[in-house]
């Protein structure tokens, strides 16, 4: 099964560009030392490719890019945040399932596709 493209974000400008360019973005904050983050990243990419192909996945390595983590008030990992048209719709941190994430994406994504 193909995976969604994972945009590795390294600067605030890159993040701003992704959020302006795409109407649906899932921000995933993680770190190489976070085992849960490393397991979730490919699973989320596969879910997006299968169920939400228009949604982009942006990954922020919080160990390498502390300023981006601080900008989004990320103090524990992992954190996943859904962004539609530049607005945050749902945010999950530490303990969440792919089902939780999928449910939070489904309704706003349907509205996105209705346009």
From TrEMBL:
InterPro entries: Thioredoxin-like_sf (IPR036249), Thioredoxin_domain (IPR013766). Residues 1-115 form the Thioredoxin domain. Transmembrane segments: none annotated. PROSITE patterns: THIOREDOXIN_2. CDD domains: TRX_family (cd02947). This is Thioredoxin family protein.
């Amino acid at each position: 099964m193909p995976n969604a493209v994972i945009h590795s974000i390294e600067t605030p400008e890159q993040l701003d560009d992704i959020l302006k360019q795409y109407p649906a973005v899932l921000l995933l904050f993680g770190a190489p030392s976070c085992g849960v983050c490393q397991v979730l990243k490919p699973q989320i990419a596969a879910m997006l490719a299968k169920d939400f192909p228009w949604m982009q996945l942006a990954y922020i390595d919080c160990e390498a890019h502390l300023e981006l983590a601080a900008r989004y008030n990320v103090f524990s990992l992992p954190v996943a945040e859904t962004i539609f048209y530049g607005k945050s719709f749902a945010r999950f941190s530490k303990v969440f399932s792919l089902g939780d994430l999928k449910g939070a994406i489904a309704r706003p994504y349907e509205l996105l596709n209705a346009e």
